[in-house]
Automatic annotation (TrEMBL):
Keywords: Methyltransferase, RNA-binding, S-adenosyl-L-methionine, Transferase. It comes from Microbacterium gilvum. PROSITE patterns: RRNA_A_DIMETH, SAM_RNA_A_N6_MT. Pfam families: RrnaAD. InterPro entries: KsgA/Erm (IPR001737), rRNA_Ade_Mease_Trfase_CS (IPR020596), rRNA_Ade_methylase_Trfase_N (IPR020598), SAM-dependent_MTases_sf (IPR029063). The keyword Phosphoprotein does not apply. This is Ribosomal RNA adenine methylase transferase N-terminal domain-containing protein. Belongs to the class I-like SAM-binding methyltransferase superfamily. rRNA adenine N(6)-methyltransferase family.
Length: 253
């Protein structure tokens, strides 16, 4: 019987190991399409790590469960690090991993707030992946990050593709840093506050909501939205990245 980690058991660590071969292959292909060294977060038993090691690129396998480290060390051509993704530097161009479902939000927030990486390929809960990719409407987190990042959904992963089996399906999400942000980086904090006000505000459509939230001229906001191809009566969740950037510039002026 495997000894218990000092950080807890599978439940506390959120360990649902990926065994779905088509998903592993898809993740490897997405990593292969991105450039640079790779950081795998939550390497676990190394099902994905073994495939990443064959890419011929520097790979670091990060794992918090010390009982998994000897198995990872036997893979070869991989640097194994005992550490926590919520504390470890995320300064490698490509980040990939099967994210512990109960830590998805804090991991995403930390990732989106850190410089140094360019592409992230993450396996999360299906609903989280859908929402972050804007399927069925944007969330506040996606709207706040969209001027700097692109989100894409790459498929659904059945719960049976994990051991032990979780209660929900997984979803494969990629996040890529925009080479040219839609909003100046110096305005990021102010823009995030603005998006939060608009999402929480009330009114007859997003132009009216933004007017009430910021005091900006309703006509200017509506003109900016129409220029981005959006009806001013749309809801905040209906706006894409370009429309959010246009709305922000109109409100800022």
């Amino acid at each position: 019987m495997r000894p218990r980690s000092r950080h807890g058991g599978r439940h506390e660590l959120g360990q649902n190991f990926l065994i779905h071969t088509p998903t592993i292959e898809r993740m490897v292909r997405l990593v292969d399409a991105a450039d640079g060294p790779v950081l795998e977060i939550g390497a676990g038993d190394g099902a994905l790590t073994r495939r990443l090691a064959r890419l011929g690129r520097p790979v670091t396998a990060l794992e918090i469960d010390e009982t998994r480290l000897p198995g990872l060390a036997r893979i070869g051509d991989v640097r194994v690090v005992h550490g926590d993704v919520l504390r470890h530097p995320l300064d490698v161009p490509v980040v990939v991993g099967n994210v512990p479902f109960h830590l998805t939000t804090p991991i995403l927030r930390r990732l989106l707030g850190r410089p140094g990486w360019r592409d992230a390929i993450l396996l999360t809960q299906w609903e989280v992946a859908r929402k972050r990719a804007g399927v069925g409407g944007a969330t506040l987190m996606t709207a706040q990050a969209a001027p700097w990042f692109r989100f894409a959904l790459h498929g659904r992963v059945p719960a049976a593709g994990f051991v032990p089996r979780p209660a929900v399906d997984g979803g494969l999400l990629s996040i890529s840093r925009r080479p040219r942000p839609l909003v100046a980086t110096a305005h990021r904090r102010a823009y995030e506050r603005f998006a939060g006000l608009v999402f929480a505000g009330r009114g007859q459509g997003v132009a009216d909501i933004a007017h009430r939230a910021t005091g900006a001229r309703r006509a200017d906001l509506a003109r900016a939205l129409r220029g981005a191809g959006v009806d001013p009566r749309a809801l905040p969740r209906d706006l894409g990245p370009e429309a959010w950037a246009a709305l922000w510039e109109a409100a800022r002026r």
